[in-house]
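Aggregate trends can hide what the representation actually does to any particular protein. This step matters because it turns folding into a mapping between discrete strings. For completeness, the protein is quoted in full, as a sequence line and a line of structure tokens:
=====
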Amino acid sequence: MELNAAFYDTLSRFRLSMGHKTSMNLTGNRKSVQKGSSTEFSDFREYMPGDDIRRIDWNAYGRLDRLYVKEYMEEKEAVVTILVDTSTSMEYGTKKKSELACMLTAALAYLSLNNMDRVLVYDMQRMQSPLALSGGRKAFPRLSHWLDQCRFEGTVDVEEAIKRLPAKGPGVTFLISDFLQDAFLESEDDPRQKRYAGAKKQTGQGGAEVQMGQGGAEVQMGQGGAEVQTGQGGAGKQKGHAGVKGQKSHAAERILRFLHYRKQKVVFLHVLAEEELAVSMTGTRNLIDMEDKTNTMRLTLDAASIRLYEKALRLFCGNLRRICAKAGANYAICNTGTDFNKLMFQELRMLYDI
């Protein structure tokens, strides 16, 4: 889908909510904690030697017989950081998740540039070479070219990418990803997981099965549909995380702590394909992991297995939403099947100063 002039015209009426006062030393449209020379009045304070006498409020002097100066908010440039997951799994869907990720990136960057904010766009696989944009909407064509050259392939470690993010001062950081990585599929901190622990269910023909076991739930979505599987003991092992309560915090919690330390307002944009949110396939299928072709599974998609998948998916998304809410971050599911105007102007309204 190409975003047309009418869309950008509507978008230009909005403004991102920053969450933090800005303090960069570049001129922009954001109100800083520092005092400056804009036209927006902030407060009065007593005159001190060296103050600009042009700021003395003579009306106050006439009433109080004391000298006061007017202070104004200084307008500064804010920093908006957008990180894009460019892994192969983002290529899934009739309407690809990668296409929606690019559209979200374009819309957020345009919105920021329109307000004279500075924009940094990162491909999570190439954190060493971000696209830096500033100077208003005239910089937007550079982003369009960057997105045209963007390739969605290979794998991404979201947490490792975040760790490589340089400090740029207070601002907003957007994570655009499907978060289909083992570290995000953990849910040991969610008490609702207890409802599934110890339960085991099998369905299918010819040995295909969907199981819930003591190891926790793992949800994988890729070429051809969905896989929900767990194991006991060593089965269903997750990379770098034991999955045992109390051993490690959730990847999303670690990311949020790191970014909050960097004085960032954080937004998780969870991009999922319409087919992942509402499985419509039936019958016996050979499922192939898009990022590891050797990882396959033969599965019979019947009503019981689909219900089990949907339950695990709700747990997965709900856990991310709960962690973000607890940390004061924003979380939103971005469905490839949703009209983009509805997504930007209705479902993501929490992002704007209104």
